Amino acid sequence: MNIVVLGPGAVGSLWAYKLNLAGHNVSVYSSQNLPNLSLELDEQPALSFVNQSIELLTKADVLLVTVKAWQVEAAIEPLIKHIDERCIVVFMHNGMGAVDTVAPLLDRNPLVLATTTHGAYKPSREKVLHTGHGNTLLGGYNSKGSRCDFLAEVFNHALANCQWTENINLALWNKLAINCAINPLTAIEQCRNGDLAKEHYQEKLNQIIDEVCQVMRAEKVPITREQLEETVTQVIKATAENYSSMHQDVFYQRKTEIDFITGYLLVSAKRHNISAPTNQALYDNIKTIENSWTQS
Ligand SMILES: NC(=O)c1ccc[n+]([C@@H]2O[C@H](COP(=O)([O-])OP(=O)(O)OC[C@H]3O[C@@H](n4cnc5c(N)ncnc54)[C@H](OP(=O)(O)O)[C@@H]3O)[C@@H](O)[C@H]2O)c1
Fold first, then answer.
1. Which helix or strand (DSSP H or E) is residue 136 part of?
2. Domain spans of the chain?
3. What is the pLDDT of residues 140-156, one digit of tens each?
4. Would you please indicate which residues are annotated as catalytic (active-site) residues?
5. How many CB atoms lie within 10 A of CB 165?
6. Each residue of 73-119: pLDDT tens digit?
7. Which residue has the CA at smallest separation from atom 24 of ligand 1?
8. Fewer CB in 10 Å around end: N or C, the chain?
């Protein structure tokens, strides 16, 4: 297949390399004005990818969008006129809501949402490290996208384990719930995920989970309070040594994805008249931190 990866950062570079190894014609679309991008994955040899080719974008069967949630609109908008209506556009990022903004501009295209637990890190522009093996779920956003279940096999062949789900919304809400519980708190406290297992974080975690669970149930996501608490506890344990992405964004003073994680939750809470003071306070705290960088 002809595949273009828009936003070859950590996740995008991992997929670009793996899809290329699987035999696809892969090019990238990065924010840098370079004709080619050379990429090494772990200890494997460098591969060269054509960058920013409008011609290849026009011919793309799949456009894989791997920019961060808050970058989606600005990244895709200038390219829309070059995207063929048969091109499947796959969005792979944390958080929810970003695709709702751009979907009306791509209403003729099959749109697919993806969520991944693979870990990737880019120590330099030309090197990507696959830091943790995980799973990827794909599912349709619109009716044309819902007919693209074959794509899970294409992605799985490149980087297992990848599966298709008929209810990507459920997977995204579950991921959002975990992110709401772990990301802002670890970012504010500048601690590892595992530190949240300590006694003095339990009250706050319980309040976050209570509010998230109420919103998920109002959104008709079938989940119980006990299930959500168990999932969050498991993820904290399994990723105890990790720093969350929001922790790292705050540490390096980079804009976070809070608007598409806790921010998305709060919009939904408001729509359902659910009070979410603990999540609101975490949201406000992260925004205050972000604003302090622009003012200094
Ligand atoms: N890294 C992980 O292990 C991991 C795991 C699971 C999920 N995720 C999620 O996956 C998403 C991507 O994460 P990431 O770690 O790969 O982030 P990242 O390394 O920052 O990658 C995003 C890339 O998009 C590029 N970009 C931004 N705006 C662009 C534009 N207008 N045109 C072209 N390229 C543009 C950025 O380039 P510049 O830096 O030059 O702007 C950057 O290379 C996030 O939602 C993240 O939460 C990440």
1. strand 136-140
2. 2-166, 169-295
3. 999 999 999 999 999 99
4. 175
5. 17
6. 999 999 999 999 999 999 999 999 999 999 999 999 999 999 999 99
7. 7
8. C
